[in-house]
Structure formats: C-alpha cells, structure tokens
Amino acid sequence: MHIITPSAVLRDWTQEDAPSIVRHADNPRIASMLRDGFPSPYILSDAKRFIARATEPGGKNLFLAIVVDGETCGGIGIHPLEDVHRRTAEIGYWLAEPFWGQGIVTGAVRAIIPVAFDRYAIVRLQAGIFANNPASMRVLEKCGFVREAVHKNALTKNGTTMDEVMYAIVR
C-alpha cells in the first residue's frame, strides 16, 4: 500500500526500515504515550520483530510506515476488534519527536480513515488516548473523531495510573 499525504508517505514496512525505527523509536517520551508492547529502550531486535509482524502474509492488522523526505520516522496502524466488537477497529500511531507539531500525523490519520472503512467491515474506528497526551487528542479532533468518554483510572503506564480518553468516528 502507498498513500501520499500533504506531508508524508504511508507505505508498507520493509526490513530496511529497521535501523530507522530504532533511531526514532528509542525515545522514552514516545514510549510513555503508547501501550507496553512498544518497548523502551527500543533495540534492533524489537524493530525486526515488529517488521516481521507487520509484513506477515494474511495478517488482519494494517501497519504502515510514515515516511517524511525519504526517512521512516513513525508508524500508523489499524487493528480490527473481535467478538461483540467485530464492527469496530482501533487506530494507533507514533511519530519521531523531531517531526512533532508539523501536521504529519493529522495528515496520516485523515488519509487512513477511508482505508480503514473500505478494508474492514467496520462501522466504528476508535482510539483510546492516555489522559496526559492532549496533542494526540487534538489530532483526532481535527480528523473528525468525537470524544466519547473518559475511562477513569483505566491505564497504568510506568507505575502511574491514569484516565483513558476514548475517541471514535463512525461510518
């Protein structure tokens, strides 16, 4: 897959992206806003393991690299849910700190929303945001997501329990 946004290209991951992932993802400020599956420190074996998962044939998730000026500097993905949530998918993303505040993630989220609704039999796309991440909340709001709920004390990251703010956009 190859999607051009105003400030980046979203494309399939390749093994050649591993060194760039390590260079950009090995940042505790990024990891502190993501689930524990995003390690810190982030080393080469983590990048290789992630790329293997992202490029697995027949995988149900959609994982795309965010590339700016030829440099892989982040990722965005869609994860369809199951069971009674089968018509819902989650969106997640991260971006290297030097690229923050430039509208790159906003463009990526805008571009992937129609892909998610076309690719999956979903009626809802959602994101659970850590309460201490207002920048991510603003990205979602700019892309048409609605703040639906605050799940009190729903997350624990690095020994701190905090609220999760649920955003969603529906078909």
Report what the structure shows.
With 171 residues, this protein is an alpha+beta fold. The chain has one domain: Aminopeptidase. The chain has helices at residues 18-25, 28-31, 44-54, 104-119, 134-142; strands at 2-4, 9-11, 62-68, 71-80, 88-95, 124-130, 146-157, 160-170.
Short descriptors:
single chain; 171 residues; alpha+beta; Aminopeptidase; eight-stranded mixed sheet; 5 helices; 36% strand
Dominant shape:
globular
Instruction: Count all strands and give the number.
Output: 8
CATH fourth-tier homologous superfamily: Gcn5-related N-acetyltransferase (GNAT)
CATH architecture: 3-Layer(aba) Sandwich
User: What's the assembly state of these chains?
Assistant: single chain
| Secondary structure: helix percent | 25-40%
In terms of DSSP E residues, the strand content is: 35-45%
Q: At the first level of CATH, what is the class? A: Alpha Beta
Largest sheet: 8 strands, mixed
What is the name of the CATH topology? Aminopeptidase
So how many helices?
Answer: 5
